[in-house]
Specification:
By secondary structure, the protein is mostly helical. It is 60% helix and 12% strand. The chain contains 4 helices and 4 strands. A two-stranded antiparallel sheet has the order 1-2. Helix 1 packs across helix 4 and helix 3 runs antiparallel to helix 4.
Length: 171
């Protein structure tokens, strides 16, 4: 089997990439008042779609770097005008196609696929960040509602105390 001479860049996340740093940050279990945000981000369908698109883009880099396969084909024909006594009327054909990629086309395809991997990484980071902000907003609303409930409970207790004092005053 022939080895590919075109250099296929690594498609693994790079530590220097801003998207990779963001994904590493989001992958850690971030807690807000003992509520993990990471599972809410990880299991969201939009993030799963972005993750699948990233996997497809990584596979496209491998496909772009591959050589095209040669092909062999055979054909059979019949010549009815040739007398059988002289030559066989059957015509046998065989063709071999060897595709030759020139002018750095494969390297250009690999570069384009690598760019799409970077784009997919940023799309995944954007989707994860959007989900994170939605979860944080929901948690902020939950916290505000809990605080409002506590204030209402305290207000009720104070009003009950005030009602009790007013009853004592009227007695």
């Amino acid at each position: 089997m022939l080895k590919s001479r075109a250099r296929i860049p690594s498609v693994a996340p790079r530590a220097s990439s801003a998207a990779a740093v963001l994904l590493i940050t989001l992958a850690g279990c971030v807690h807000v008042k003992d509520r993990p945000i990471a599972p809410a981000i990880h299991f969201h369908p939009d993030v799963a779609v972005a993750r699948a698109e990233l996997a497809a883009a990584r596979a496209a880099v491998i496909t772009a770097g591959a050589r095209e396969n040669p092909s062999v084909s055979a054909s059979v024909g019949f010549n009815s005008t040739t007398p059988v006594s002289q030559v066989s009327p059957w015509i046998l054909g065989l063709s071999l196609d060897l595709p030759i990629t020139t002018a750095g086309k494969r390297a250009q395809r690999v570069a384009q696929a690598t760019s799409q991997v970077d784009s997919a990484r940023f799309a995944l980071a954007g989707a994860a960040w959007k989900r994170r902000s939605e979860v944080r907003a929901a948690l902020a609303e939950l916290s505000a509602a809990a605080d409002a409930e506590a204030l209402q409970a305290r207000l009720l207790a104070l009003q009950e105390d005030l009602a009790g004092l007013l009853e004592k005053r009227l007695e």
